[in-house]
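Journal club prep, shared notes

We agreed each person brings one worked example of a sequence with its structure written out as tokens. Mine is galactosylceramidase. I'm keeping it raw so we can talk through how to read the token line rather than staring at a rendered picture. Sequence first:
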Amino acid sequence: MMKSLLLVAVPAICCLMLTPVTADNNNIVFDDTTGLGRTFDGIGGISGGGATSKLLVNYPKLYRDEILDFLFLPNFGASLQILKVEIGGDIQSTDGTEASHMHNSWEENYERGYEWWLMVEAKKRNPDIKLYALPWGFPGWIGQGTSSPYTNNNVTADYVVRWINGAKTYYNLTIDYVGIWNERLYNVDYIKTLRSVLDQRGFQNVLIIASDDGWQIAGDISKDPELAKDVHAIGCHYPGTWSSNEAYLTGNKLWASEDYSTFNDEVGSGCWARILNQNYVNGYMTATISWNLIASYYAGLPYYRDGLMTALQPWSGNYVVQSTIWVSAHTTQFTSIGWKYLNHTSGVGKLPSGGSYVGLVSPDNSDLTIIIETLTHDHSICIRPPLPAYSVTPQNVTITLNGHLAGISQLYVWYSKLNYNGDASSMFNSLSPLKVVNNSVQLSLGLDEVYTLTTLPGGLKGSYPAPPPAGQFPLPYSENFEGYQLHEEPYNLAQQTGSFEVHKSGSNKFLRQMVLNAPLAWCEAEKLKKAVNVIGNITWTDLFVEVDFELPSVNASTGVFVAVRINQGGCELMNTWGIYLFATSDYKYILANDPFQNTVLTSGNLPAGGGWHKLSLFVQGQKAYGAYDGTGIFSVNIPSTPPAGFAGIGTQSFGLADFDNLYLAAQQEGMAKMTKYFSNPMPESQPLYFIKEHN
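Then the structure, token by token:
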């Protein structure tokens, strides 16, 4: 295989890259007699990293099932072959936090979070889908007093393997692959310990992918035969279609274990089409996994619409099947994990006038699938890394089938054309089969096209009736948590730090914040040292928010808050602004313009006394009103910035805090509520005002 390669110097991503020789004429030969290339390991999507499927759970069942079919059902939509999920660690991992199965060392719970549900639904539709699990972070106790998960490798390995065992014990889910620590330092001794613990507990078939970052681990693998054996595949993130020479020479499988992460318009679809082919053409990567699976998190959180499809309005039922779904189908509906790529000299390469092609054959050599893409540079730019200049021009090519492939008499054809001029793209259309004459077929290739030529007669562009139109988050909104199972996470509250779950006392269900100490964080959001849970619409300006709260007698937070106009989430949470009303455990209230309370707008004392209390905040223009237990406590002027943002609840510090009877209302009702709470009438009501959304 190496004889067919040129070694060239390339800046930025890797020092050396493997570049296939491009054919010097328009005759593209597919021939299996020269041997076969690497084994195809699948196309997939990531749920997590973090909370990217958050809103999907709350969709009406009819539309939720349709969405899941578009993602997972074989021969219907994307027909994904790998589902990668986050092992929740109570940490902010991009768009929210996902709950750990062990908030503390003394407890274990497998009813938390929604990844279990998603994996079950994926397996229900495709029993052959592979499941891949990866931590983005860990609960604080894992660090044993440090900020590293590698302080005691046995503790960390035990924690991860317990999650894998929980998947099997409680949901009959077999985890196929497990990673180390997303985009953070790997530890060779930990990888070996994890392999040992997996084997000891009967999970010999769970394979390790490392290190879900760059190609750096290849250096250690090349020097350590035990590590090389323990690592099933080297997983790299955003490789730009190139692997390093050192990684290639290890002989290990090479994966783009996280890729794409691009706004899912037609340019994003072009990015996805290009990398699905060229990750193997350029970099010999046999699996490509999209971050993320589905953009199902609030607009206004980071990386809006960076998923294979979009579903962010459970209240309306609206969802969008993007072109990325049909780009995926060009590969996934006509291959299976275990197929083999043809060699680069005889079925994989670059087209003479730009673009690429890959050929794959079934394990018994009875079927052939060819995927061709001609995506132009400006129409296929991914979010990262930068894309070097290249050109594509229309071209006519002859495809010649040699060897065992010479017996093929016709090829079924599926075609997509991505449009960028405002016209709708033409996606995943079945064309008339091509007759193979004298072992050859001719194709006229335009720009920004994807073709699949295959011996397989299947394939389907699945469809459902159009979903309902999009609509605003409904106000008023109330939540008493009575409809949830214990330990379930409320549907529409999007936790940004901390971990919130439903608990019960007597006959009453309520929401409890569970994180006691700072976790081993993935990003800087946890520097807040607070739990934050947002809801609604980042364009909300004037709003009423109210919640009942209680601070438990043991392991409690030092206080709670309600807030409006929270203008950021995700890893930038520590830089957020808003209007925050805190009630503290020493019976004080603080109104602040930021969660750190660096800009205090007013403060005062509250009546002493434990038990449940009601905290209310109403903001209108540059005026804020607060109430405690139904009595007004302040009316003050506030800054004009931020002008809009989410509503939210949370804690003043990590520690237990209980919430109930959350209520949100628009301006008119908020005015009426506060008028009741204050003895003096408030200014006349004005219409609820929204800042225009930027899509």
